Amino acid sequence: MKNTGMTRPLDTLGRIVVPKEMRTSMSIKAGDPLEFYLDVETGFLSMRKYVGVSCNLCSSVKDLTYFRDSFLCKTCILDLKGNKGVSQIPAPAVKEPYKEKRANRSSSKKLAEQLRRLMHEHPTAKQGEYAEWLGVSQGRISQLKKLL
């Protein structure tokens, strides 16, 4: 059971309005019969659309058997056992998990040493130029400078 978080008051005649969202999801229209179930020990009241006593697959009322909260007729049971009228459901296509392509990155120590060498060779170069030469961002150059 799922808690919907919806509450509705009883009116003076003891009636309750079933929220539209629930009626829509359960395919309940005005005038449809409903079944009510009550668990006296827990005080739990539930309802569902009344489908009557007929086969859930073909709506037949002959030779019914109750199976897993549903009525099935003998003909439908035999058809299911023999896989008659059953179509194969194709297996869903399995997508490869997304893997972000990561560039081969050098270690911080290696980049710091390369930056130190570049700073000695080109002391007047700007931070953007160092970033371009090393193939990293300007922010990474700032981090590397702090390591030095």
TrEMBL record:
<dbReference type="InterPro" id="IPR037914">
    <property type="entry name" value="SpoVT-AbrB_sf"/>
</dbReference>
<dbReference type="InterPro" id="IPR007159">
    <property type="entry name" value="SpoVT-AbrB_dom"/>
</dbReference>
<protein>
    <submittedName>
        <fullName>Transition state transcriptional regulatory protein abrb</fullName>
    </submittedName>
</protein>
<feature type="domain" description="SpoVT-AbrB">
    <location>
        <begin position="14"/>
        <end position="39"/>
    </location>
</feature>
<dbReference type="GO" id="GO:0003677">
    <property type="term" value="F:DNA binding"/>
</dbReference>
<dbReference type="InterPro" id="IPR052731">
    <property type="entry name" value="B_subtilis_Trans_State_Reg"/>
</dbReference>
<dbReference type="Pfam" id="PF04014">
    <property type="entry name" value="MazE_antitoxin"/>
</dbReference>
